[in-house]
Amino acid sequence: xxxxxxxxxxxxxxxxxxxxxxxxxxxxxxxxxxxxxxxxxxxxxxxxxxxxxxxxxxxxxxxxxxxxxxxxxxxxxxxxxxxxxxxxxxxxxxxxxxxxxxxxxxxxxxxxxxxxxxxxxxxxxxxxxxxxxxxxxxxxxxxxxxxxxxxxxxxxxxxxxxxxxxxxxxxxxxxxxxxxxxxxxxxxxxxxxxxxxxxxxxxxxxxxxxxxxxxxxxxxxxxxxxxxxxxxxxxxxxxxxxxxxxxxxxxxxxxxxxxxxxxxxxxxxxxxxxxxxxxxxxxxxxxxxxxxxxxxxxxxxxxxxxxxxxxxxxxxxxxxxxxxxxxxxxxxxxxxxxxxxxxxxxxxxxxxxxxxxxxxxxxxxxxxxxxxxxxxxxxxxxxxxxxxxxxxxxxxxxxxxxxxxxxxxxxxxxxxxxxxxxxxxxxxxxxxxxxxxxxxxxxxxxxxxxxxxxxxxxxxxxxxxxxxxxxxxxxxxxxxxxxxxxxxxxxxxxxxxxxxxxxxxxxxxxxxxxxxxxxxxxxxxxxxxxxxxxxxxxxxxxxxxxxxxxxxxxxxxxxxxxxxxxxxxxxxxxxxxxxxxxx
Length: 583
Prior knowledge:
By secondary structure, this protein is of the alpha/beta class.
């Protein structure tokens, strides 16, 4: 009996021992008596960008996106870091060829990317709008233009401010914020039959939209869309296979052009101000025979050497009014030369009228004369229109070159005058003269303006049955576009050589020489000093090409003199010394 009792006690002690021992496997070091469910962190409700000192989302920007958009991505990353003391990872949207983007990862997509979420977010928005939204596992911050992208950045900054709690950044799951960063671009109806290539600040208050992979039919359909959106056709024009039209409403002007050589449609939108005069808009009384003048540009400089550049040409219309081209350098002698010319030949010297002052570009040897003239003679003349196309300062390369934006503001010096930013394909009817714009920087955009002369406007003037091609300082790149657009339709009676015959901004010159050949102009108005022409200019291959063309019959080098040719002009009848080739 005692033996059984001892055995029972031993078994009982063994059971108690086993219960108190640790299990050999899959057993925690300590057994908690606390209910686990009472200590589990509650699930985060929202889009947890940063929590517990760590970033849950990374930022993705487009590998091929422009600086306007990649800069915002970098700023968004820094903004999150400043707010939370956590720096998120940043990467581009590059993936190996044949590989799809990862749509499951938590990412903030900033600007255009290869992810479908970036483009899907923009559907239904205007060209000047932005959006901040959630699509799947992506937070999308996107817009089509730089102004709207910057507005999106500001909106995202405000969003962070409103949802930052103790270093954690958690955004609402139903995130969707939209707004407008550019009201002008929102005036453009959606372009249905093409690809939006870029939105571009074209200077001043003008925006440019470029659509590629288009057709003439797509262009026509867009014009119909403009009309159905409340715009009225103001003018239309065709040059070779290129089509242009200007539409207006009470507030805005939209100018559209189909560029055949690149199968693109380029559309500008700007506030409605002055419009190009149409044929019949300005009645006039014939008082004189039309003529063209070229004013000298070669004068002693401060150091005693001759300054040999500058451009100043002047056309007199049948009513005695004038069209001035550029106006030369910022020198009183050139301003006086211009005023004296107009005074001498005006039907009424007490009522000198400049129908238009046209600027090719903003370099001081082209706009300086206008500034000097305005200081001395603004009160003595009537100026009706100032015409040009100057790039926005934001597109200037490393500050190279001026923007010319001081010119539009100068209308105050001439009561009643108006500034018009000209666009390709527009026609200005000024008395009996027809001015047609062939090229502006809008034709070159969105490529970087690394050489300021590429912004030089190219245009023609028809007067007295003869045609003038004015190239300003157009670069080879600009001239190449001009030739590709118009080809043999560039045929003219007069030509002004590009950049005085100096550098074309390129190691090749096929654009310049092609324009010279296609123009086949018998008369050359060369805005250069005689010394520069003889020693430097004519020795350059592209200048020699113009001189040696069979079509070139007579060359007038500006030098330090003034010439005046009556129109229509016959070669060899000027009475002035010129370089006259054998007929």
